[in-house]
Request: fold
Amino acid sequence: MLQVQPICNFFAGINKTDDGSRFAEKGDAHRDVTMARLAETYLLRAECYVRLGQYSNAMTDINTVGTRGQWKQGENRSYYVDGPVAFENNDLNTGCAATNYINSNLNMNTYYLSNPNVAVTTDASDLQLTSFPADLPDEDEDILTKIGAGTDYERALHFILNERTRELLGEWQRWETLSRTGTLISRAKAFNPEAATSITVNKHELRPIPQSFIDGLLNDDGSNLSDSQKAAWQNPGYN
Reply:
């Protein structure tokens, strides 16, 4: 009999940096900021291949990331295998403090609650692409349609950006990547209603240069910069 979970009625937070072995208040501790990610390295190389028009090589790197992330046969999709599990053996997890662990996760995540139409299963999943950038998963095709990505290059680049979202959720700042790839405006207008009406081409792809830095600049003869010279140092759209 097919078992389906009820509709989720709460927002699931991100706890991928939780570290249950640390002795922070109520066991709420986090690992240091990630400095390097193997999956991101593969996705960056895939992007390089896309820029070279080598879509087959890009697909190979993307599939490597998918192989690492897909569910294995017999794996319980609701069970934690990340940092919070260590709290079970933390000295904080004693007496009344044990409720900190019990109430926080019970070794379970929100996979099925976050995917209410997914049947409960322990079968292996398959995230492998068989063509690229054609015939992508339905959820990606929906995103590409909304953005208006039509060429092979646009489809491939935006798919990699989707993969970065799935793989690197909660890590670093998204702005740098979208600005660098020239996709900030199109994706913000498509998916960020708060920014869609105010984000501006040839402005928000860059950040303002701090005025204190500009004010401290001097000409070769040691004189201060004129107002026009200072204005020339500032990025377009910022005063």
Notes: The chain has eleven helices and no strands. The longest helix spans residues 152-167. Residues 214 and 230 are 6 Å apart (CA to CA). The radius of gyration is 23 Å.
